[in-house]
Amino acid sequence: MSTVAAIVAPSVDAPLEPGTVTRREVGPKDVLIEIVWAGICHSDIHTVRGDWGPQRYPLTVGHEIAGVVIEVGGEVTRHAVGDRVGVGCIVYSCRECENCLAGEEQYCLRGMTGTYGAVDRDGTVTQGGYSTHIVVDEDYVLRLPETIPFEKAAPLLCAGITTYSPLRHWNAGPGTRVAIIGLGGLGHMAVKIAHALGAEVTVLSRTLDKRDDGLALGADHYYATGDRATFTELAGSFDLILNTISAKLDMNAYLRLLSRNGALVTVGASAEPIRISEFTLQAGRRSLAASGIGGIAETQEMLDFCAEHGVAPEVEIVTADQVNEAWDRVLASDVRFRFVIDASTFAAAG
Ligand code: NAP
Ligand code: ZN
Ligand code: ZN
Fold first, then answer.
1. Predicted confidence (pLDDT) per residue in 58-117, tens digit
2. CA angle 157, 158, 162 (to 5 degrees)
3. Which residues contact 314 (CB under 8 A, 6 or more apart)?
4. How many angstroms separate the CA atoms of 284 and 266, rounded?
5. Number of domains comprising the chain
6. Burial of 78 from C-beta contacts in 10 A (0-12 / 13-18 / 19+)
7. pLDDT band at 350 (very low <50, low <70, confident <90, very high)
8. Does residue 183 line the site of ligand 1, with CB under 6 A?
9. Peptide bond preceding 337: is omega within 30 degrees of 0, i.e. cis?
10. How far is the C-alpha of 48 from the C-alpha of 37, rounded, in Å?
């Protein structure tokens, strides 16, 4: 076991502070990764602030990890010392259930092991990527294509796969009209990926403030949902709507924007119950669905797709001592469009 520098949440409501986490010995199938970049996902904030239920503190979050392999166990075959690799939201799963066997470990029927806040095989609580090093079973470690700028690779491990997976599952592509609700970390990746897939893309944001950015990211159309006329003008006009917002929304109003057979897929996770009208769904055989991150194989497919199509997030680099401020800015939707922490600053912050 070794102790490494980290940024730690001491409790549900205290600011994050410098600290340490313990990493296990490198087992035969493990790789030891020196973390270079760590993305900030809104889920990190939901988790620490108790939005999704109680946590065990102190807790280190972060599940958008890009780094370099510095040690491998004796049975490791997929990765070698010096490789650029990524770790997302999953660090283990049962490997035996129907969903694991289908390569969809995120839906492991026995519960996948999340990168932070989950009970690991040895009974300890997993600790995430706001730290200098992590030890992960090689099967849950992704290859990072060289052509993706290193600091931009980290957000792909959550924001990228969480939007790529439903866009692929619901067949976004040429001839489909796709709307993205919310232009934050996930939303801006959804716009880029849907555009690269060939779909006609519309952004539905609260205001027109980010309109120029949205169009530059690849959106064809941009509407403010703060303007009620938007809902009249766009009624019945989308085959697929992806909800990426971090707060509760008036689902019925958005369901009415779906075409016949259209689907509204929610990846946003406010955890507040939603009310929907069966009549709104019945008026056009509409579906309401949800999607969670993506499996390991599909995450690799997404990374390769992004490399091939030149898709990468827009990032703002911060240092370890700026993480509390960055969280405040995420909560204020003041980020264009993903914060990435320079992991070399974790040690200095302690
Ligand atoms: P983010 O960067 O903070 O973006 C969220 C966006 O939601 C904002 O940019 C804003 O868009 C909109 N928004 C924020 N507050 C709002 C409010 N009060 N009312 C209406 N809209 C509001 O967050 P993120 O990292 O992209 O994550 C988005 C959500 O997805 C979070 O709930 C996160 O936990 C969840 N998530 C889910 C999965 C999954 O597997 N399903 C994976 C990762 C994240 P505009 O300013 O454009 O309106
Ligand atoms: Zn995330
Ligand atoms: Zn399983």
1. 999 999 999 999 999 999 999 999 999 999 999 999 999 999 999 999 999 999 999 999
2. 120
3. 188, 213, 217, 336, 337, 338
4. 19
5. 2
6. middle
7. low
8. yes
9. yes
10. 20
- Those residues whose beta carbon sits under 5 angstroms from the ion ligand 2 are 41, 43, 158
List the structure tokens of 279.
Answer: 């009549």
Residues 99 and 17 in one domain: yes
Q: What is the 3-state secondary structure (H, E, C) of 291-333?
A: CCCCCHHHHHHHHHHHHHHCCCCCEEEECHHHHHHHHHHHHCC
Which residues on neighbouring strands pair with residue 247, listed in sequence order?
none
Ligand 1 atom nearest to CA at 225: 48
Domain that includes residue 227, residue range: 162-290
Judge if 209 and 67 occupy the same domain.
no
Q: Are residues 70 and 136 in the same domain?
A: yes
| 124 secondary structure, DSSP code | P
Pairing of strands 30-39, 65-72: antiparallel
Q: CA 27, 120, 158, 25: dihedral to nearest 10 degrees? A: -20
Cα-to-centroid distance, 229 and ligand 2 (Å): 32
Separation of alpha carbons 276 and 147, rounded Å: 44
Residues 138 and 56 in one domain: yes
- Rounded distance from Cα 196 to ligand 2 centre (Å): 22
Q: Using a 6 Å cutoff on CB, does residue 158 contact ligand 1?
A: yes
Which residue has its alpha carbon closest to ligand 1 atom 11?
182
